[in-house]
Design goal:
The model has no long low-confidence stretch (mean pLDDT 94). α2 crosses α3, α4 runs antiparallel to α5 and α5 runs parallel beside α6. The protein has two domains: 150 residues, no CATH class; 254 residues, Aldolase class I (TIM Barrel, Alpha-Beta Barrel). It contains twelve helices and 17 strands. It is α/β, with parallel strands linked by helices. Bound molecules: iron/sulfur cluster. The site of iron/sulfur cluster has 10 residues, from loops.
């Protein structure tokens, strides 16, 4: 944790953040990283010397507890504290991640429209160039090593590493599971099956392809290449996402194989982060057809928890039809019952469900969600959250519609006997 002063920079080549992810009401960094402070910003790099977090300092930065984070997909996300009021109720976390690309957010602010994030990113680009110049000076070895890694991590290199990651896994991850908030969306993606069973008309994250599980050899090759992309920073990961939209349908043998290999090849046992976690998506059809042995196998894996998010989307006939989603109400209700059953029986497996909604959905939709999440449940169940995903084009929402969508969300939230949160669609 030694810090060195170089001109107006304070350089700390090695810093240690928290070793467990947590839901805390103050800014926190995870794993091991390096830091360079300038009079105007604090820049934090991952173990490859790639920029990961930027915090502004002084009056021109919107809030001392807010920061920018760059993802492995090379997107910037602005973490807003929202004065630590109300955000937890919405998302289950104490920050709101504003995205730098269009999504389904229903909050009107757009930090990326203001100067501070733009200045922060361009200040980093200038410092990244300066790192190369500083290398000609006599400097302590740890500082030189860091500056040399920073100098190599140009914006072009970061772009092409993200593109390489996307190529390896068969394309960008168009939507991350909502449960990945538990690890601050920090997980290594591996595609074990392409496409999905339903190809619903309304869906804007689908690949459009039919479901196809990948051969084991292809999955292993993919993991080896993905591992190379993460490089030295692999040590800062302890979570894997088995994609794409319905990995559960791949069945016990392939899911267990991929989960075990990810644990082994990504060296989660030696990660700087404790409590490895596994994430996957499932559908009403795949959860109903899954053999009990699949959940037994997941329960016995070395992961602390396996989160399976099931896209239930709607539970009434008219809405399912409007969404052009080819499943029946009975199937959705049975899938929901199976989710509750699995959550009761398996300690290390947590199944969550998501439903879509907006201000334009019919009262029957909301009544059917209440029927599932309230009327059929005993009071107070902490396991198995439900996520409500607004079906909106955020660019065309006005304030009145935003208020109405929030009102409907809170109405459901206060009546649901399962924890309920908004689902903000994030990509990787
Ligand atoms: S909602 Fe789920 S099942 Fe339907 S098309 Fe989208 S990803 Fe596939």
């Amino acid at each position: 944790m030694d810090a060195y002063e170089v001109d107006n920079l304070i350089i700390t080549p090695e810093k240690q953040g928290a070793e467990r992810f947590g839901t805390v009401s103050y800014p926190v960094r995870y794993g091991h990283f390096s830091e360079i402070r300038t009079p105007s910003h604090t820049f934090q790099c991952n173990l490859n010397g790639e920029i990961k977090v930027i915090e502004g300092r002084g009056n021109s930065w919107p809030h001392p507890a807010e920061w920018l984070k760059r993802t492995a997909g090379n997107d910037w996300v602005y973490y807003s504290a929202g004065d630590y009021k109300g955000i937890y109720d919405l998302l289950g976390e104490y920050y709101y991640p504003y995205l730098s690309y269009p999504s389904n957010s229903i909050l009107s602010d757009n930090p990326f429209g203001s100067r501070a994030p733009k200045t922060a990113i361009s200040s980093w680009t200038a410092l990244q160039r300066r790192a190369g110049e500083l290398l000609s000076r006599p400097l302590p070895e740890p500082v030189k090593t860091l500056l040399s890694r920073v100098a190599q991590s140009t914006p072009g290199v970061l772009r092409s590493k993200a593109a390489q990651l996307h190529r390896m896994i068969g394309g960008r991850v168009t939507v991350l599971p909502p449960d990945s908030r538990h690890v601050d969306y920090e997980m290594i993606p591996v595609t074990i099956a392409e496409g999905c069973l339903l190809n619903c008309g309304f869906c804007r994250v689908k690949s459009g392809r039919g479901f196809k599980a990948l051969p084991r050899t292809e999955i292993l090759e993919q993991m080896k290449h993905v591992k190379e992309v993460y490089g030295k920073d692999l040590r800062n990961y302890s979570a894997a996402f088995l994609g794409q939209h319905d990995a559960l349908e791949a069945g016990r043998e392939l899911v267990s194989f991929a989960a075990e290999k990810a644990y082994e090849l990504f060296e989660f046992e030696h990660s700087n982060l404790k409590d490895p976690v596994l994430f996957l998506f499932g559908s009403p059809l795949s959860i109903l057809s899954a053999k009990e042995g699949l959940f037994e196998a997941l329960d016995s894996l070395p992961y602390s928890t396996t989160f399976i998010n099931i896209g239930l989307e709607a539970a009434d006939c008219a809405t399912l039809k409007g969404l052009r989603r080819p499943v029946s109400v009975e199937t959705v209700r049975e899938a929901f019952s199976r989710m509750l059953d699995i959550n009761r029986r398996y300690q290390k497996v947590e199944v969550t469900a998501n439903f879509v909604f907006s201000d334009q959905f019919s009262p029957d939709h909301f009544a059917s969600l209440l029927e599932l999440t309230r009327n059929r449940l005993d009071p107070i169940r902490a396991k198995g959250a439900i996520y409500l995903s607004p079906v909106v084009d955020e660019q065309s929402l006005d304030d009145a519609r935003r208020r109405e969508i929030l009102r409907r969300f809170y109405d459901l939230k206060i009546h649901s006997r399962l924890p309920a949160f908004l689902y903000l669609i994030q990509r990787l």
